């Protein structure tokens, strides 16, 4: 019986690893970048970054002994987390950090072929649970419902390859928005997470902003390294 050709073996390894090729990753990255810049179409994906940002604030609050009252999301992609207690520095720093980390985690999940559908289901369920626990006003509940649909609706699709690509693009958009969002703080005087951290630590706000930018850039770099490593294995 003839041995399988190298191309067949490479294809098999790609299906097992789930990581896209270098070219496909770059295409997905450019596509994600374009989507985040399009009016109206980009709005739900800005909500994604805002959701994970506020969720990270909430989780940091709980982990440091505080209590979360509710979260609030706005159509322009802004958000608020209302809480009491906890460690202010940890809570303040966790928002932009968490959004970047969530984006990277989702990207890694998207390279796990057998877990693609489970990943969508878990993420959609997390949004539903967040709505039940911390959604209060109609606007926030509506935005969270849209995000739940964004994660749960693709489960109706039968092609796992498309689902993996869609999940990777979502992850890249979260990281790109996490990279872009802190830059807005440069124009805010005395407002935002950076200003709060500066008042708590005496470290200038711009250093906090640059730190968040660096973290988001590192997460994107790690995604590339994941793709590059998988490509070398397939060679």
Structural account:
The chain has nine helices and two strands, in the order αααββαααααα. With 235 residues, it is mainly α. A two-stranded antiparallel ribbon has the order 1-2. α4 crosses α8. The N terminus is likely disordered.
Lateral strand order in the biggest sheet: 1-2
Mean pLDDT: 87
Characterize the largest beta sheet: strand count, sense, and whether it forms a barrel: 2 strands, antiparallel
The tally of helices reads: 9
As residue ranges, the low-confidence spans are 1-16
Please indicate the percent range of residues in DSSP E strands (runs of 2 or more): 5-15%
> Roughly what percent helix?
55-70%
Count of β-strands: 2
Rounded Rg: 19 Å
Task: Give the SSE string.
Answer: HHHEEHHHHHH
Main structural class: mainly alpha
Overall spatial form: globular
For this structure, the quaternary state is: single chain
The N- to C-terminal Cα distance equals 23 Å
Number of domains: 1
Secondary structure topology:
Blueprint: H1 6-17, H2 22-35, H3 43-63, E1 67-73, E2 79-84, H4 88-109, H5 116-134, H6 138-152, H7 160-180, H8 192-201, H9 205-234
Antiparallel strand pairs: 1-2
Helix pairs in contact: 1-9, 2-7, 3-4, 3-6, 3-7, 4-7, 4-8, 4-9, 5-6, 7-9, 8-9
